[in-house]
Specification:
The structure holds three protein chains of three kinds. Chain A contains 13 helices and twelve strands. By secondary structure, chain A is α+β, with helices and mostly antiparallel strands. Chain C folds into two domains: 73 residues, Beta-grasp domain (Ubiquitin-like (UB roll)); 85 residues, [2Fe-2S]-binding domain (DNA polymerase, domain 1). In chain C, a hairpin with a 2-residue loop joins strand 1 and strand 2. Chain C is globular and about 50 Å long. Classes of the chains: A alpha+beta, B mainly beta, C alpha+beta.
């Protein structure tokens, strides 16, 4: 890693001011993505600010109205083990448990998890210089290269990378809210607006700017959360990023879907809500596989495969179906 | 012959489960220096020129070794370390045979590595 | 070619500045107070191996992908290659060298010998550190990705072989001793 200075933040206002003032400063919490990026020479902050000591940012609160407020410094393992998370939002607990490894889950923070950068090999390997995310304007090696792990939705000529966070998929399905404190005060960002599409500026993964500090993620109560499930499909059985994954949640009425929430990972630069499928699933019986498949397929008419990832289009639909059926069994 | 059929613990068992077994990287020597290897990014070709000035002037660097200043190694007629008939030895000539072939070794100051 | 002698490196201005940027970190390492002075970029792994001469913890991938560098920070298993030593001021760190108490092996260390849970032994320290903490996590009721229904409470009695394999999946073994490792962890868990 390159040499850098390291200091500790005592209070959020100080951390925000330092971040706004110095574009070469980066926050470090668990460090499990940032240190990897620095070892790959894909990140070169000259100054790291250790925010682990910031007060009151690691709590997991069950809200009276039925939702959750998860502090940005809460660790993945603590959130996944929390009984209220498991009961109220099993999809969130599962998304966390299917990620990384036991050791990494003990280190990694919730805030850092939703900030993690793509695993695209061209982004993380400095020997091939063509990466618009790392070096704007240098091109995209994956577009016509080895793109098996890359996007089928929302990609552009500039970037075909995917967002690797499992938690982000679950939070997108649950319409969580990211609570950010900045120089202008506190604001609430709907989760589906937090991550960006690459467009012509893939160097920006999310909508945060200098001086922005994620303080918490709020998950409001919803009708579908209790019967929810996260399904992750990958080449290995464990300890690997998703080929595709699905967060499914469903409210039922006598075996028929009243409402559904579906989001996918491994398919786009941000978690991908299947809004067309969600609408089409209303009223469908959980036992009617053909009707379920048709409804799901409506969200895949705009899928655009790359040279090496056409299998994802079919695989994704099957993963959604299975996740939906497992979630349905939890009502 | 008493050991046949008996469950015998490995003689190195205790060493390995306590962290006392010593592997190559665990050995500490006085005045040890470390080398950082720079690898070829192309699979086949010839090194036309190497500009080592910036590396040599970097703080803490003792030396930069390339095929131009590396001591000559004696080619052995046979070695179990390479396939039969292959005469390649690293950093001895300007030929690149594979992507990832060492092209330079930079030795930084041992002071950075001292216990 | 110029012969390299120890101490030949010149103390340039830049090096003097680098020295000024060092940080001093106080740790409680295997129950002993220890202090290191390092560059901020020094990982916990490099501090343990290079500065504190504790080479039991191994560097294999050095990028968070194999688990060989697993140690405990405040009793929780972490990857020492993916964290900076300077971020652990005042913390309790346990390495493989700290598991043995008064010459007596930890039950999991004995179980690894009993069940032949290693061949080359390079991953072993990380496996054992991970396994010790993993058993505590199961006792604390933590579910895993192998838990069919995480909505329900989890207890140590629910720790099946499939659960152990999933919970230990962050520790790779190139010699493929996995079945014996699972045996060792299962025995130690049953005994704890």
């Amino acid at each position: 890693m390159h040499p850098f200075a390291l200091s500790r933040a005592d209070d959020p206002a100080q951390a925000i001011a330092a971040h706004a003032l110095d574009p070469q400063l980066a926050f470090i919490a668990g460090g499990t993505d940032l240190i990897g990026l620095m070892k790959d020479h894909a990140a070169h902050p000259e100054h790291l600010l250790d925010i682990n000591g910031l007060p009151n940012m690691a709590e997991i609160d069950a809200l009276p109205a039925g939702g959750l407020r998860i502090g940005a410094l809460a660790r993945m393992s603590d959130v996944a083990a929390d009984m209220e998370v498991r009961r109220r939002f099993p999809v969130i607990a599962e998304a966390l448990l299917f990620a990384a490894s036991g050791q990494l889950r003990n280190m990694a923070s919730i805030g850092g998890n939703i900030m993690q950068r793509t695993r695209c090999a061209y982004f993380r390997d400095e020997t091939d210089g063509r990466c618009n995310k790392r070096n704007p304007g240098s091109g995209c090696a994956a577009l016509h290269g080895l793109n098996r792990n890359h996007a089928i939705f929302g990609w552009s000529q500039s970037c075909v990378a995917t967002n690797p966070s499992d938690l982000a998929v679950a939070l997108a399905a649950m319409d969580a809210i990211v609570i950010v404190r900045g120089q202008a005060g506190e604001r609430r960002i709907p989760f589906t607006d937090f991550h960006r599409l690459p467009g012509s500026t893939p160097e920006r993964d999310n909508v945060l700017g200098r001086g922005d500090l994620i303080v918490a993620v709020e998950v409001p109560a919803n009708a579908e959360a209790r019967a929810s499930h996260y399904l992750k499909v990958r080449d290995r059985a464990s300890y690997e990023f998703a080929l595709v994954s699905a967060a499914a949640a469903v409210a039922t009425d006598g075996g028929h879907i009243r409402s559904a929430r579906l989001a996918m990972g491994g398919v786009a630069h941000k978690p991908w809500r299947l809004t067309a499928a969600e609408s089409g699933l209303r009223g469908i019986s959980l036992d009617d596989s053909d009707a379920l498949e048709s409804a799901i397929a409506a969200s895949f008419s705009d899928a655009r495969a790359l040279a090496h990832n056409a299998f994802k289009v079919e695989l994704a639909q099957r993963v959604v179906l299975r996740a939906l059926q497992t979630a349905g069994a939890r009502t | 012959m008493n050991a046949v059929g008996q469950p015998i613990s490995r003689v190195d068992g205790r060493l390995k489960v306590t962290g006392d077994a010593r592997y190559t990287a665990d050995i500490r020597l006085e005045a040890i220096v470390h080398a950082a290897i720079v690898y070829s990014t192309i699979a086949n070709g010839r090194t036309v020129s190497i500009d080592t000035a910036a590396a040599e002037n970097a703080p803490g660097v003792l030396a930069v070794l390339t095929h131009e200043n590396m001591p000559r190694m004696k080619a052995l007629p046979w070695s179990h370390l390479r396939p039969q008939g292959q005469t390649y030895l690293p950093l001895q000539d300007d030929q690149i045979h594979y992507a990832g072939q060492p092209a330079q070794a930079r030795c930084p100051d041992r002071r950075l590595c001292k216990a | 070619m110029q012969k390299i002698e120890p101490g030949d490196a010149e103390m340039t201005e830049r090096q003097k500045q680098d020295d000024a940027a060092l940080v001093t970190v106080n740790l409680i390492l295997n129950n002993q107070p220890r202090t290191v002075t390092v560059e901020p970029r020094t990982t916990l792994l490099d501090a343990l191996r290079e500065k504190l001469s504790l080479t039991g913890t191994k560097k294999a991938c050095d990028r968070g992908e194999c688990g060989a560098c697993t140690v405990h920070v405040e009793g929780r298993r972490v990857l020492s290659c993916m964290t900076l030593v300077a971020m652990h001021e005042g913390k309790n760190i346990t390495t493989i060298e700290g598991l043995e108490q008064n010459g007596k092996l930890h039950p999991l260390q004995s179980a690894f010998i009993e069940h032949d849970g290693f061949q080359c032994g390079f991953c072993t320290a990380g496996q054992i550190m991970s396994g010790v903490a993993m058993i505590e996590e199961a006792k604390a009721g933590w579910p895993s990705a192998a838990t069919a229904d995480p909505r329900r409470p989890f207890a140590l009695a629910d720790l099946s072989r499939a659960e152990i394999r999933e919970r230990m999946s962050g520790n790779l073994c190139r010699c493929a001793c996995y079945p014996n490792i699972v045996d060792a962890v299962a025995e130690a868990a049953a005994r704890s």
